[in-house]
Amino acid sequence: MDNLFDVAIIGAGPGGYVAAIRCAQLGLKTVCIDDWKNEQGKPSLGGTCLNVGCIPSKALLESSENFERAGHKFAEHGIKVEGLSIDVPAMIARKDKIVKAFTGGIGMLFKKNKVTALHGRGSLQKRGEGEDGWEIRVNADGAEQSVHARHVIIATGSTPRVLKAAPVDGSNVLDNAGALALQQTPGKLAIIGAGVIGLELGSVWRKLGAEVTLLEAQADFLPAADEQVAKEAYKALTRETGLVIHTGVEIGSTQVNAEGVSIGYVDRDKNAQSLQVDKLIVAVGRVPNTTGLGAEAAGLKLDERGYISVDEFCQTSLPDVYAIGDVVRGPMLAHKASEEGVAVAERIAAARQGALDSAAHVDLGMMPWVIYTAPEIAWVGKTEQALKAEGVAYKAGQFPFMANGRARALGETTGFVKILADAESDRILGVHMVGPYVSEMIAEAVVAMEFSASSEDLARIVHAHPSLSESLHEAALGVDKRAIHI
Ligand code: FAD
Ligand code: NAI
Q: Which residues are catalytic?
């Protein structure tokens, strides 16, 4: 193999593989180095997102939602289901099939775009004075080779944060990977951390019949979301989905025993509690992956939290070395990683032609967030509490799904859409949703905000009837107190 490249990318998650394809599209000779191995010990492209994150979790959410519908919601449509049961291994096999199709698909995309894929752990070597380009050593099970590249993009992602009091053993105490591979529904399941993973995976196993208890350290539920949305979601997830959520707890210790796992914790009223469950999932956040990257030796600066330090264009402290995705500041989201990958690829290509593509950057303030529970939660822009804290004068318009015809037909009437607009200019500052399929609806809000739309702009746009998107339209009308159907 010719080992001289224009760009070397370390990591083939949604940050790295997308950056690699975009670099190749722009005519750059590109290598993408990744060390992920699947359960069969085979290289598997796609990083966390495709192997043990976004894709498998949504596959299981869909299966569990179908089971729940068949068991509890079909009856009101007059559909009778007798002898309903769930074959968990078949559900997991379906999920594995989806993962295999997607991870294999990246290999094909690499071939089509002439990206060289190298399996192994990449480490950046220290560069000599006056030297151009970078050497990356790639170690695959002890066999080492080197590649050289003018530019490097680090996209090494993140791994689950370890909680000393609850060490993951892959059998009783699980991280996200283990939680996505259970072969039977646990009778009782506890989850430490009521964040995004806790709520999504908790919902999966709850809908399949487990008793699920979430133990959350923070006093408030989902503090990053708009307060009103968090309140509505809490109500729905506890009353409708049946999750038990304890906030403000302090985990003491966990013990694996013959019956499963026992968890000792102090509740929000400072009373000692213990909980015996069959399985425990630990989902207390993720940490940037810089181990074995040679960061320190190469002189790469990390910030105080261990993320690779970058500027707004993902440039690191080293010349021609960029970093993107979960390993740098900002939300740990697949689409954020991918868009940073595209922006960096375009900047590298522009720089090589002596230009600077200043348009190629990612606005973190316009990042859509989605939590795929039922109801789904989605938002973009500022929350109401953030606007208050910043002293920004705003107007709000809100519309409940209860008054939306399509939501009624679906039988999914929990939740609402809320639009926050600047009191003077009417420019949309934030859109917050909780309800059915808001993961799809949030895109319209992002487009509107990217185009600096006012709430009046959205109010004047025709929305198909009956559709869930009419709730966004009505919320926009509501900003000016002229919603029709409420
Ligand atoms: P990663 O996807 O983590 O990929 C990094 C890759 O680099 C990995 O393959 C890793 O093995 C490899 N690597 C690391 N170090 C080296 C090295 N030195 N040499 C070679 N290779 C290396 N986000 C969403 O937007 N939507 C969702 O629905 C969603 N659901 C999620 C569900 C779960 C259960 C989890 C855990 C995460 C979810 N996320 C979701 C988050 C999303 O998966 C991450 O934000 C995304 O994968 C980050 O992409 P990345 O490319 O930065 O890193
Ligand atoms: P998270 O940050 O969303 O939630 C972790 C939760 O654990 C927090 O609420 C935190 O307060 C709590 N916690 C921390 N230490 C604790 C302790 N000792 N005891 C009890 N609770 C404790 O992180 P999570 O859920 O692990 O997910 C990681 C990231 O993956 C997310 O932040 C998100 O960026 C990404 N992700 C995105 C998804 C999506 O976009 N739909 C789905 C799943 C994950």
A: 465
CA atoms of 406 and 437, how far apart (whole Å): 11
CATH architecture for the domain at 375-479? 2-Layer Sandwich (3.30)
List 191's β-bridge partners, or say none: 214, 281
CA 157 to mean position of chain CA atoms: 12
Query: How sure is the predictor about 355, in pLDDT bands with cuts at 50, 70 and 90?
Result: confident
Residue type, 395: K
**E strands along 71-175, which residues?**
116-119, 121-124, 134-140, 143-154, 158-160, 173-174
Is-same-fold flag (4-159+287-364; 375-479)?
A: no
Whole-number Å distance, alpha carbon 288 to ligand 1 midpoint, is: 10
The CATH-assigned architecture of domain 173-284 is 3-Layer(bba) Sandwich (3.50)
Cα(155) to ligand 1 centroid in Å equals 9
Mean pLDDT value across the chain: 96
Residue-wise pLDDT for 127-161, tens only, equals 888 888 999 999 999 999 999 999 999 999 999 99
Helix (H) or strand (E) holding 264: strand 260-266
State if residue 333 touches ligand 1 by the CB under 6 angstroms criterion. Answer: yes
- Please report how the helices 16-25 and 334-352 are oriented relative to each other, as an axis angle in degrees rounded to 10: 30
**Which among 55, 60, 61, 54 is positioned nearest to 90, based on CA atoms?**
60
Q: What value, to the nearest 5°, has the Cα angle with vertex 195 and ends 190 and 199?
A: 60
Say which residue the tokens 């752990």 belong to.
Answer: 121
Written out in words, the top-level CATH class of the domain with range 4-159+287-364 is alpha beta
Q: Is the CB of 16 under 6 A from ligand 1?
A: yes
DSSP secondary structure letter of residue 371: E
> Cα separation of 101 and 140, whole Å?
24
Which residue from 316, 349, 354 is spatially nearest to 7, judged by alpha carbons?
A: 349
Structure tokens at 290: 């810089």
Distance (angstroms) between ligand 2 centre and the Cα of 284 equals 5
The pocket around ligand 2, CB under 6 angstroms, is made up of 163, 192-198, 200, 215-218, 251, 283-286, 331-333, 370-372
Helices (H) and strands (E) counted in the chain, each on its own, are: 14, 22
Please report, for the chain, the start and end positions of each structural domain, with discontinuous segments joined by +: 4-159+287-364, 173-284, 375-479
Tally of CB atoms within 10 A around 79: 10
Task: Lowest mean pLDDT of 16-20, 154-158, 323-327, 360-364, name the range.
Answer: 360-364
